[in-house]
Every structure is written in structure tokens, then in C-alpha cells.
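Model it.
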Amino acid sequence: MTERLIPQDTDFNASYPGLSRRLRLGVVGGGRIARTQAMAARMSDRWDVVAGAFSSDPAKASVGAAEWHVAEDRSYGSFAEMAERETARADGVEAVMITTPNNLHCAAATSFLDAGIDVLCDKPLANEIEEAETLVSRARETGCVFGVSYVMSCYPMIREARAIVARGALGRVNQIHVEFMQDWMIPEGSHDAPHVRWRLDPAVSGPTSCVGDIGTHAAHLASFVSGLELTHLRAEFHVCGAPKPLEDTVFMTTRHAGSVPGTLMATRLATGNRGGLRLRVFGAEAGLEWDMDRCEHLKLNRFGEPDRIVSRGHGHGVSPQTERLVRTGRGFPEGLIEAWANLYIEFAMAVAARKDRLSTPADWLSLPSVEDGVRGVRFIHAAVQSNSAGGTWQPV
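Modeled.
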């Protein structure tokens, strides 16, 4: 009998179902974000981490295998070796998370796609538009699931915000403002940390630092919630702290589909700000606001009426799309790790559906896709071109 992962009687309007077994996940990269994602993948109860390419240094890879509790014969010195050897195993990995520096994303993803292994890749998808477009083509040709880790879209109240806009509760959207204000580059010496050095190296990080890292999150979030694609921007890059080869701050004016105006600001030098991600969408009839530092709540304002606060939690009247990503009742907080876990739940559902050859409703999953990743790379390059041209408008 053919193994089935998703239950036959799944109600696609209800919570995401448990699978008949956990899926086998591999890790490419072994740094801080890989550990965060692995923690979240395990929290989702849909994944077991069974293999990894933790370092190209054999000694570090061996240490990594022990730390990750991965069998030594499943710890590899390169992603190419991992793809080849795991494909040959009956119990090989079914998907991988790619958490390397940016310049390796394309080559790593291609190795696994060509092996028929599903991929969840960190953003930005690649450093060049051509590389990103190649990954779209390879994903389509192989039929593999290819998700991109725009995790901010996986907070339950962001899903609720999206549902509110989609049902027309704001009226016609007329402004979109998003900001990502952090302060972790302020301390002297912060540039020398291993996880920071490569983010300031154009050969590794690509043509931007702040824009490619947190700016892409902000741009994706604005389009995800509003339903309006980013079409044009003008950008100014700044170095507000110690001298560095790439920007630590960006200010943008934006336009979305329908000529809807907006702003996007991102920095790592906003003293006193930690999370610092905030989204505001205003329409002809109402506006909504979400702040990651208070991620449990969504503020909905209608002109001439008292403000309304929408809360995350079971049984609180949120949409079915939100409810399926909620774990606890009101008053029992959830945060970033849970949002990461939601990303890995949806990735698991997509992988399982592919394996089951199951046709699912178009609105069942909102997993950020490889196409979203390409839009992110185009956003980065439009920002670079605009800044180089003195802040002129550029198409995305």
C-alpha cells in the first residue's frame, strides 16, 4: 500500500492536520539562524533533522554533527556531497533548509532541486536576478516545493491583517507604510562578529546589507498584507554608524499596484529599537496597524469610530486562515519562534501534498514561494539602481 502522509478525510477549512509521520529534514549551514529554524521545525512536530552540511571544514562539520545529534555518516563537507549521498539512501532527506550566506544560496538550492529534494531557502534568494530566475525555472522543471523564509508573514495577526484587507474592510487601499528599525550594529566591535562580517562583504552579501537583509522582509510584508505588488521605488542608502562598505540604513518612497503610495524605512542604527518592525495600511474607510513588538494584537481603526484591537488566540473570531496557525488562547503569548514554526508547518504541508500527489485549495497555504524570492531580489536591485542614480524612481 502506498504511504499517505496527509489524512484522506482532511478538512481544508480546519486546522492543518498532523502527518502520518515526521518528514526528514536536512540542514545546509550551521549558524545561529539555522539553529533557530531547526528549533521551530521541531516545534511544528512535522520534521526530524537527520542530516546536515554544517561546515566545509571537516573538523567543524564533525563537531556540528555532534551538536546537532546527527549521525556522523550523515554529516557532509559540502551541500553537493549531501545532495548526492542523501538521494542514494532509502531514508534520505525529503527537504532541506538552506541557511548559508547569500552567495551560496543559488548553488546549494540547485544541487537539491536537481536531486528532487524540496527546498526552503533563506532570503535574499540570490545575489543576482539571473540566478534567482534560474531557481524559478529549476523549481518548475523539477516540480519541487521551493519556499523562501519570509517568516514575518507567518505571524497569526499578519495573516489576520491580510484577511481583513482582502475582504475589503479598509475600503480602497490608499497608503502603505512599513519600517524595520533595529539597533544591533551600534556597539563598537559588532562588525567583527562572524555572523556580521559576511553581511558587510559585497562578495558574499551582494550589493546591499541592510536592504537585502531586513529591507526585503519589510517589502514582502507590505505586499503580502495589502495584496498589492510593489511596482516602483526611489531609495537613499546611508551609513549612519561607523564606516562600512555597505549601507546600514535605507529610506524609500514606494509605489504599489494602482499607483498606491507608501514608504519603507530600514536601519540597524535606531538606538533603543530591538524588533522594530511596524506595518500600517490605510484605506478609504479604515486603517490597520501591526507592531512586531506587540505581535499579539492588531489595531483596526474606522474613521469616526472607537479603535478596535483584534487579539490573537483561539475562539476569538479570527479568520480560519489565522485560526489554523494559532496554538494557544488569548493571554498566553506566542512570538517569533512560533512564527517560524508556522512557516515550517506550511512547508511540511506543501511537501506532503506533493508526495501524496494531492490537489489542495489555492488558499490553503500562504508559504512564501520562489517567485516571492525573485521579487525580493528585483526589489534589492531596483533600490541599488535608485540610490546610485541619486534617488530616482526605478521600476521593480
